[in-house]
Amino acid sequence: MAEAQKKEHPLREYEVIYILKPDVTKEVAEKVATRVADVITRMGGTLTRIENWGRRMLAYEIAHSKRGLYVYVTYRGDGALVAELERNFRMLDEVIRFQSVKIADEASANEVSSDALHFEADDAPAEEEQGLTLEQRLGLAASPNREYQSQDELSDEEEAMEEFS
Question: pLDDT averaged over the chain?
Fold first, then answer.
């Protein structure tokens, strides 16, 4: 009777974006990515893509951090896999935020390239924005790290726009 109650759940396609603390090392980022892949495989899912989006500014401060290392993952699995993956994210101190989203109700049987499954962590960030003001980081004021076009190097489109002004 217990077997009759156990229904095979359909595989769905999911994506998850998780954010690591900005000061994590390359080895720790790869360790977390490996753990994610192991959980997906262990729970009967299929990892379809993992991408390192790099260190980015956060919309708001999280755990006293203004930046975070973003990682994007897509996989096929069932609801139990999503719950287990989220449980693992909660246990990892390096993960400061995560969000899982169902992409499709039925997983497609597309082939997965091995390049899409290779996670490559980048080295620690160069703190080039450390001494910049808020206006410089938002691009509202001149920044010493940014190259600007001189008036002589305007494109034809920009010149045409100036003529109409």
Answer: 79
Q: Report yes or no on 66 lying in a domain.
A: yes
Report the predicted TM-score, pTM, of the whole model to 2 decimal places.
0.66
Structural tokens at position 24:
């994590």
Q: pLDDT category, 63, cuts 50, 70, 90?
A: confident
Joined tokens for residue 165: 């002004």
Structure tokens at 162: 């100036």
pLDDT in tens, 3-24: 444 456 778 999 999 999 999 9
Half-sphere exposure (CA, 13 Å, Cβ side) for 25?
A: 3
Q: Give the domain extent around 6.
A: 2-124
CATH at 74: 3.30.70.60
> CA dist 84 to 51, 103, 149, Å?
21, 18, 51
Has residue 14 been placed in a domain? yes
